[in-house]
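Suppose you are handed only these lines of text.
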Amino acid sequence: MAIKEFDVFVIGTGTAGKTVAYDCAADGMKVAIADNREFGGTCAQRGCDPKKVLVGITEAMQLSENLKGKGIVSVPKIDWTALQKFKASFTDAVPAFTEKKLKEAGIEMYHQSPKFLAQNTLSVEGKTVKAKKIVIATGNKSMELKIPGREHLKISDDFLEMAKLPESIIFVGAGYIGMEFAHIAARCGAQVTIVEFGSRPLSPFEADIVTHLTEASEKLGIEFIFNAKVSKVEKLQKDFRVSFQKKGKTETVDAQMVFNTAGRVPSIDELDLEKGNVSFQKEGVTVNEFLQNTSNKNVYACGDVSASGALALTPTSSQEARIVSLNIRNGNHTKMDFPPIPSVVFTIPQIASIGLTEEEAAKKGYDFVVEYKNVPKWFNAKRINSATYAYKTLVDKKRNIVLGAHIIAPEAGEMINLFVLIMCGKLTCGNIKEMIFAYPTWGNDIKGMV
Ligand SMILES: Cc1cc2nc3c(=O)[nH]c(=O)nc-3n(C[C@H](O)[C@H](O)[C@H](O)COP(=O)(O)OP(=O)(O)OC[C@H]3O[C@@H](n4cnc5c(N)ncnc54)[C@H](O)[C@@H]3O)c2cc1C
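From them, the structure of the protein bound to flavin-adenine dinucleotide can be written out as follows.
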């Protein structure tokens, strides 16, 4: 059988892969795309979107809880089955819709993991295909914990698909996924325990801000076990038992379900990268400033799977895809040059961050002013009786520009977008003070933060 030849072969149909495929097809190139799961990627089916649908319901509950006795008589109860049905109304249509769009764009589809046979050659669905450029956009997957009983651990995909909410849940790992899911589960009525290796949750985020979230989470009933190294998971008659080492001793905790939220790693195991002379490292496919593989120049990588150094988020994945598609179509002219990237933890309240933490700014030798304030008495928080509202901003002394902003607030995720404009637009604090914002809004509060 004749070997099919393409201009571009994309592996992965998530945010990154689809973007490159559509751009190249629109430019008249012959494009193919492959995925070994339902087409459409993580964000829309197993990540950001379904998660935010679940969070939305708990926001309604939390607002009622805050205002109970202040006009609200009772807090609404969750119907988990109806909530899952509502969530499915967003996710179920994604694969068919994605395939329809790819077909309309004239992109050939394969439903299997391709394997490299040589630099420009892949094997997929029993066929050998060749492509001038191959794009790896296979994203991340849950990191496997190499401990006895790991087969009992569920992952984030399972959490989002749970038909019934268990009475008790253990999350192994207090990163952003563990924290967000713990908040959803606790508000929906589960008894939640988080076992964390470090001494606090959310290690990349500003410690002073995270302290407020730890307190708020404990008030919600979440139990934290810090400095604990999980060593074993066992199935009991009804529950599961998680053993962990803490201060040299073995302790245990039981729950009906245990989730591994200890981190995500690049999805590259099935690709036979060595056969394609594609270099890779712990963080993913090794890339240069053009997001081109350092050993096989016909390969590019974008999104979570590239070891670009950017945060593994949806907006960074689409930005990387844009760079890859430009470089494939026009030659290597577009370099990775990331502006400050905001990141949000969708707990209640939310934590949102951009730029440098205080520790990072000090390490980099900046001369800066820190403003760290606890402001639950500011009107926006008081109006909805939210007990937690704090911020930390770092301002460069000489240039009077923001180096970093870290907020915990019910709407921190929206507020941080204003800091994106401030930092990317290189506005000074003086510029911000002169502006007029609508009142009373959370956005207006940023004038008081700089
Ligand atoms: C629970 C959760 C919540 C999240 N919440 C947020 C959030 O709120 N905001 C945010 O910005 N980001 C969030 N993220 C991260 C975000 O989803 C990712 O950064 C984004 O989806 C990455 O896009 P991508 O295209 O690089 O990879 P993906 O969307 O993961 O796409 C990769 C595709 O490649 C396929 N694939 C994998 N291996 C192979 C193979 N060998 N062969 C063929 N196909 C393969 C996969 O099936 C998948 O379809 C969340 C992630 C999770 C898991």
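What can we learn from it? The mean pLDDT is 97. Residues 48-66 form the longest helix (19 residues).
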